[in-house]
Amino acid sequence: MTGQSDTVLDVEALDVRYGPVRAVRGISFGVARGGITALLGANGAGKSSTLMAIAGVVPVASGRVSLFGKPTAKTTPDAIVRSGVGICPEGRRIFASLSVEENLIVAGTAVATPQVAATRREEMMERFPILGERRRQLAGLLSGGEQQMLAVARALMGAPKLLLMDEPSLGLAPQMVDTIFSIIEELQREGISILLVEQNAALALEVANHAVVMANGEIAGQGAPADLAGDTLLKSAYLAA
Ligand SMILES: Nc1ncnc2c1ncn2[C@@H]1O[C@H](COP(=O)(O)OP(=O)(O)OP(=O)(O)O)[C@@H](O)[C@H]1O
Description:
Layout lengths: L6 E12 L2 E12 L3 E5 L6 H8 L7 E6 L2 E2 L5 H6 L2 E4 L11 H10 L4 H14 L1 H5 L10 H13 L5 E5 L7 H16 L3 E5 L3 H7 L2 E6 L2 E6 L1 H5 L2 H7 L3
Bound molecules: adenosine-5'-triphosphate (ATP).
Pfam family, one: ABC_tran
Family: Belongs to the ABC transporter superfamily.
GO biological process, one term: L-amino acid transport
């Protein structure tokens, strides 16, 4: 496969284990170039483990992950980020005791020259004006939604081609959830491919062009969002929203 392939991410027969726990069991799916794949399922289904294995943070026990047509075996998490992957982890994981700007400075050091990083920081302040207004405020004082924007801005500092987002709407007020989903759609329009782990299945199915439903570490179903949304059995069993 080459960089011209139709998919930016291919997961094949992936297994993730924590000691004796087989958290992910032989799952296969992909993210199309320029597409949004939604990864859905109940708590504990294995979504975060899948995302973290793709990011190189937890080991792949068996199977294969390929990014931009290349297998990632033995690739370190920072090399995966530098290859064009942005990560918005569950719980945002921003540095609460640093300012908004300092969070972006830290994020930029690993992925860009100082000059490019400074330009991108200013782009982020323009894209998310609230971050511009609060650039010198401690990130820990931002609202949940603003912290999520900062987490997205941080992930964008490396100008990623693929964004891995883990539950970006978790714990946010409804209006802020809409804002975050608008941002997701905007990023896709700009050509960024997205793997979106979400507990808000209804919203995720609206923005995705492919959806994967996980249950007990396996894939319970995958396909076009409209087909999954219409699958009452799958919906009632695995998608609470
Ligand atoms: N570090 C760990 N050590 C042992 N078991 C783990 C670890 N992390 C996750 N697990 C287990 O692996 C399984 C899958 O968890 P995972 O967090 O991937 O699911 P999830 O679908 O993302 O759920 P959530 O929405 O709650 O994050 C669960 O049974 C969980 O208890």
